[in-house]
Amino acid sequence: MGPTASGKTSRAVEIVQRFPCEIISVDSAMVYRGMDIGTAKPDKETLRIAPHRLIDFLDPANTYSAGQFRLDALREIESIHSANKIPLLVGGTMMYFRILQQGLATLPQADAALRLELQTRAEKEGWESLHADLCKIDAVAGMKINPNDSQRIQRALEVYLLTGKNMTKWQREHTHALSDYTIYNIALTPFDRVRLHERITLRFDQMLAAGFMDEVRALYERGDLHPDLPSIRSVGYKEMWEYFSGLSTETEMREKALAATRQLAKRQITWLRSWPNVEWLDADLHDVGDKIMKIIQHVTPDKDN
């Protein structure tokens, strides 16, 4: 686990080359086809060496929930175990990690009239206003949910208005932990925030050089996608979409995308700090690869032996 641009994929590939592991992606954006450069999806050569499960299988016009991820991940975990290998879950979508390990609360069914009421309010006041209300009701959920994430803001407010309990309390009372497996949690991140920001800037500029604008232009010109879709709300894609919509200049797009990516990394690290039983590793240390290998060696012997 770790924030964006911390080097998770390259370390995971090293592990697969040495140990009998198979990778399951834990990334809410890599599931979408045609979104390769902006999600830092592994290239064909990397996937040949270290195949990734749960990437590149969904059209961007569709939505993908944390609950569906849990079902898919459990299926892949069982498949990997059946082949006498170790599942290696790699990514930065912390909610997916949490729901996989702790379970998913059965939330009350949506109420059409209430949903329409919230959407009407949002049209008049903006989603940031509803997010402010959510923060008063549920500070924990408010911290985790982006002020522009209309889908999750709406659902969290629905749960509270339908049950009288905020989302955090409801989930605490209705979730069930995953207890069938022994889980090892490794957090990989540069301990120096300045260095992390440098990594983020370098990677985004590399994405631009690799054709990120052309990738988003192809999505924009499809005609059936819009900025309220979870795929298009992904960091980088949202800012690029606004650029193609004439809402910003290219320079402004870059600065907004970098700021949004830094905020994403901050939220990811906040999640990790609350995680129990985590082995923290500094991604910038020269021997971080050796340290990861020592941890993995406790799980399974070297496949060469």
Task: Provide a descriptive summary of the structure in words.
There is one protein chain. The chain is mainly α and 305 residues long. The protein folds into 2 domains: 8-104 and 176-299, Rossmann fold (3-Layer(aba) Sandwich); 112-174, Histone, subunit A, CATH 1.10.20.140. It contains 14 helices and 5 strands. The chain has a 3-stranded parallel beta sheet with strand order 2-1-3, with helices on both faces. Helix 11 (212-220) packs across helix 12 (237-244). It is globular and about 55 Å long.
Q: What sort of overall outline do the alpha carbons produce when their principal axes are compared?
A: globular
Oligomer: single chain
Described by strand count, sense and barrel closure, the largest sheet is:
3 strands, parallel
Cα gyration radius (Å) = 20 Å
Give the neighbour order of strands across the main sheet: 2-1-3
